Amino acid sequence: LRRILHLSDLHFGRLQDGLTEPLLDAVARARPHLVAISGDLTQRAQPDQFQAARAFVDRIDTPVVAVPGNHDVPLGAIFERLLNPWGRWRRWLGDDLEPVWRDGRMDVIGLNTADPWRWQRGRFPRNAGARLAALAGLTPDPDRLRIVVAHHPLIQRREDPKAPTRGGRAGLAALARAGVDLVLTGHLHLWRAEAANGMVLCAAGSSLSTRLRGEDNDFNLVEISTDHITIVRHGAPEGSTAYAPVGEATFHRASEGWRSA
Ligand SMILES: [Fe+2]
Ligand SMILES: [Fe+2]
């Protein structure tokens, strides 16, 4: 069994008052094997915002896999955006935009779905299918858990407020072929957990920011084993300074893949 704490859309630069310490406390108390952060760590990719994000990550006493979101590209700095769109991310959060973390039971694979040429819309990285297949080939054990962390959801609902990710549907199929069990995303600032293509797709809302779309600030505590996934959503309602469990989704593995329990 592995426990993953899933944070998203922190948006340093536009924080909810008084939530950072409670969130760090909740992370420490959950004692996860890994913390996944699915993008938009900053509000406007400003140096002080990256610095604050770095300081936050440094206070997490667990391995962290973080990927960029559309807000982590310096939109207004035209030349920098053209020539070195990931320079700021690299400086503060690490050279690898698609980090991989492995232990004896699982592979956690970051995908960078942010497109520096677009203001907001994501794209499934062209090489991701081959990269995932190669990674799966390194550890062919069918019982190994494979988890993908990406900012943009690969599929969304018709009523969702933002443009769907380019190549998302084909990307989803590629992830399924590579034996992925669980995909952790953010971006819409809407919590969600569902089974699709034999995988579990889980989105967190915004863990810390005031960009809320009427939802609580939240994070997910995910427990995953070979045949069970439990996702407990922890929310902090507007004005409160504590996260508490507010919902749960469970899945089990059937012969054709993961299904809602
Ligand atoms: Fe966001
Ligand atoms: Fe986003």
What does this structure look like?
The protein has helices spanning 20-30, 47-58, 78-83, 87-93, 128-138, 168-177; strands at 2-7, 34-38, 64-67, 100-102, 106-111, 145-150, 182-185, 192-196, 199-203, 217-224, 228-236, 244-254, 257-260. The protein is α/β, with parallel strands linked by helices and 261 residues long. The chain is globular, with a radius of gyration of 17 Å. One fe (ii) ion (FE2) binds at residues 40, 69-71, 151, 187.
Helix and strand arrangement:
Layout: E1 2-7, H1 20-30, E2 34-38, H2 47-58, E3 64-67, H3 78-83, H4 87-93, E4 100-102, E5 106-111, H5 128-138, E6 145-150, H6 168-177, E7 182-185, E8 192-196, E9 199-203, E10 217-224, E11 228-236, E12 244-254, E13 257-260
Parallel strand pairs: 1-2, 2-3, 5-6, 6-7, 7-9
Antiparallel strand pairs: 1-10, 4-5, 8-9, 10-11, 11-12, 12-13
Helix pairs in contact: 2-4, 5-6
Percent strand equals 25-35%
Count of DSSP-assigned helices? 6
Q: Specify the biggest β-sheet.
A: 7 strands, mixed
Low-confidence stretches: none
Q: Please provide the ordered H/E string of secondary-structure elements.
A: EHEHEHHEEHEHEEEEEEE
Question: Mean pLDDT score, rounded?
Answer: 95
Bound small molecules, by name, code or SMILES, are: fe (ii) ion
Q: State the helical fraction.
A: 10-25%
The chain-level structural class is alpha/beta
| Main sheet: strand order | 3-2-1-10-11-12-13
Gyration radius, rounded: 17 Å
Q: Could you give the distance between the termini?
A: 18 Å
Strand segment tally: 13
Shape label: globular
